[in-house]
Amino acid sequence: MKALRPVHLAWCSQLLPLVLGRFWKLWFCELWILLLGSGPSANFLPHEEDVDFINEYVDLHNELRGQVSPGGANLRFMTWDVALSRTARAWGKKCVFERNIHLEEVQMAHPTFNPVGENMWVGPESEFNASIVIRSWYEERKKYTFDNDSCSADCSHYIQLVWDSSYKVGCAVTACPTVGSIQRAAIFICNYAPGVQTPGGWLSNSFTSLPPAFPFGNADRDQAIYYQFWYPRWEVPRPIVCDPLCMFVLLVRLVCFLMCVMIVLIVQPHFPYIFLEKQMVFTPEESEVEKEKEEKEKVQKEKKSERKKEERKEEEKIEEKKKEETEEEETEKEEEEEE
User: Fold this and answer.
1) Distance of CA 79 to the CA centre of its chain
2) What is the number of domains present in the chain?
3) Which residues are in the SCP domain (predicted)?
4) Which residues of the chain fall short of a pLDDT of 50?
5) Is 98 exposed, middle or buried, given 0-12, 13-18 or 19+ CB atoms closer than 10 A?
6) pLDDT at 130
7) Bridge partners (DSSP) listed for residue 216
8) Is residue 305 part of a domain?
9) Domain range for residue 60?
10) Are residues 168 and 189 in the same domain?
């Protein structure tokens, strides 16, 4: 990776109009330098699926495993695994210098392997170099004593690096604003499968008194599997992936939609008004007939109401006549009584 080229203030100042003062020229140039210094950070670190990056750390792992002394009895040849690199990337995005808590959970760190091993490095982004970091892990061999199978200090990185049964590796480096007290940090994580499983007696069965030998491989075992639809469930944000189940559901929905359309096209010619509202069902002629019927009904209702009114009037007249008759009778009676 090439370092950033220095930018001269004099060259920057020539880009500004001569009308601007010296203060504004210097301020603009300083801002330009800061932008140049912070801009390429996203491109400085390699992507976890970059071929050159993968070849660099995989080849170095196999080279260092071949240099183990005493010689490795069952050291396996390491190959790249995309799922392990995705797990490394997902945990690195958390920007914490802590062990991945999902390494021993089934299908949380890898779809098939369990448990998964891990080596981690944190430092300034500008100082990151995959080869130097991996070699620093290997240098922990000086803390390991073969005779009593123990470490005088932490040598867990070395143990995982030369673990005999591990044959898959995936690494990723992530840029972070801050990790602990480190500003503009980089987290480099390598995951291994199968990982270290026992806390004690780590390497006694992995070494022999033979001279160093290159790890042996296996064509079937070393074949790359790309796990197209697998990503860690706990990754945030998680890539949107449509796995076979998702594709099946989408296909079923599409088939159901097409069947519904076909049924509508088949049924509608036989029942053309089945999906129409009541007021839109009839033809214009039928609607006129209905209007006439409604008008007739209205006329009949009006006639009925008029008849009722007339009947009420007649009843009122009859009642008035009765009242008059009763009054006349009463007056006659009163007259008779007076006589």
Assistant:
1) 28
2) 2
3) 52-200
4) 1-19, 29, 32-43, 199-202, 204, 209-210
5) exposed
6) 97
7) 76
8) no
9) 51-238
10) yes
- Residues 63 and 242: their CA atoms lie apart, in Å, by 38
pLDDT of residue 48: 94
Strand partners, 174: 187
Spatial neighbors of 114 by CB under 8 A, at least 6 apart, are: 104, 105, 106, 107
Question: Looking at residue 234, which CATH number applies to its domain?
Answer: 3.40.33.10
Given this model, what pLDDT does residue 27 score? 55
Residue from 213, 228, 266 nearest 75 by CA = 213
Token representation of residue 103: 């390494």
- Residue 145 neighbours by CB under 8 Å, 6+ apart: 151, 152
CA dihedral sign, ordered 308, 310, 316, 319: negative
Are 206 and 73 within 8 A, CB to CB?
A: yes
**Cα 80 to the center of its chain, rounded Å:** 25
Is the residue at 176 inside a domain?
yes
Residues 55 and 157 occupy one common structural domain: yes
- The structure tokens listed for 37 are 């210094």
User: Phi/psi at 119 (nearest 5 deg)?
Assistant: -125, 140
Residue 72 falls in which region: left (phi positive, over 0), alpha (psi -120 to 50) or beta: beta
Q: Which residue do the tokens 């001279």 mark? A: 211
| Amino acid identity for residue 291 in this structure | K
